[in-house]
Amino acid sequence: MGLTMKKLFIILPALILTGCVMSDAELKTAYADHYYQSPEYIAGYKQKISTMNVNELAVVGAQEDKAKMNGQSRLKIGDSLYIENIEAKDNNVIYHYSLSPAWLKKSVSSQKNDQVNMQKDLTFRTCSLKTVQLAQEKGLAEIHQYYDDYPQHILFTLHANKALCKENGF
């Protein structure tokens, strides 16, 4: 794919905001175009994971995504979000984020609206990636935990998995 983690998360707000004026079908097309993976890349990934079980796949996925943090203990990925850690547990890749004090000062309704948009973005982004679809076929899932007091308290959790992709027409 070639995107750094920071670049990946910087472009997300634009797609989320665009989603407010686009239909789900148009949004799916925009995500598919933006996150295009070549047939060669997909074939290479399929070969790479062919001998892995889902737990091994989770470990490799977590290691690869953590490597995108370039050795930083935490990475700012927007005005209100830091990624703190990425780890594997069983068949899950777990992403740990801390929310900024500014985000936490938003109204409850604004926070809930953000959560809905974040879940939609996560679903559309992950489900648009052919490599993620291949990993999900093996049972891989993602858990995204958002903390108001990292690592003591999780404020909310978002998920990405095969069932959510199917529920959303992917």
UniProtKB/TrEMBL annotation:
Domain of life: Bacteria
Signal peptide: 1-25
Name by which UniProt lists this protein: Lipoprotein
Keywords: Signal
Taxonomic lineage: Bacteria, Pseudomonadati, Pseudomonadota, Gammaproteobacteria, Enterobacterales
